[in-house]
Amino acid sequence: xxxxxxxxxxPHDMLLPGTRTxxxxxxxxxxxxxxxxxxxxxSLRALxxxxxxxxxxxxxxxxxxxxxxxxxxREQPRNRMWYAMRSASQRMSxxxxxxxxxxxxxxxxxxxxxxxxxxxxxxxxxxxVQVPRYIAKLDIHLMPGGYAAENGPADLAAxxxxxxxxxxxxxxxxxxxxxxxxxxxxxxxxxxxxxxxxRRILELGCTVGHALLPFAEFxxxxxxxxxxxxAPCLRYAHARAEALGVAAHxxxxxx
Length: 255
Prior knowledge:
Layout: H1 20-40, H2 43-60, H3 66-73, H4 77-113, E1 122-124, H5 133-136, H6 157-169, H7 180-192, E2 200-204, H8 215-218, E3 223-228, H9 231-243, E4 249-252
Parallel strand pairs: 1-4, 2-3, 3-4
């Protein structure tokens, strides 16, 4: 299916459309990232093969390993510039979508609050769960505040931002619902083990449930469970699953 390219396109009720101005900014960031990945990055191979590799082989007296290649490339100004620009484009992209989510946050939280569990799913949060330092202290993937940043008892911004960025930037390569990893695994299991009939399916580190929900189509009799340490991601995951009509049970736990 086609990806959202107009302000009113959205694959489910928890992914709200942006204004045309907001979407234009987001799509500019996507185009910049695509240019860096598809037009600029390939030249780095030629840089290595033509300028770096000969000297590296001569110095080592053998073919270099990947860590030696990486260390040598880190000394190349053109390579360092590419990484600086790629990191900047990723930060710009997140900032553009974060501004959209900040504006939409009251409506997103209101929609999540209206979630009644009509699809049969549940949400169980545990304030006693400690978010590991390697998650709490890092902006993983350069996402501002990381995946577990929480501002208020109903906050779901981290989950909403993750879903929006995946939808905008993957060009539909994982499907409109970003579910291909889970769908592909479920399809493979179904084909390879046709008698396999799980009663419960658990995903560790489910984020917003992209990979978990497609299992409902292949194993409709199984209970779906997802755990994560991020309360904001789980709040969004639950509301998203209900909006899609999939019964899934989300728990705040440390894998």
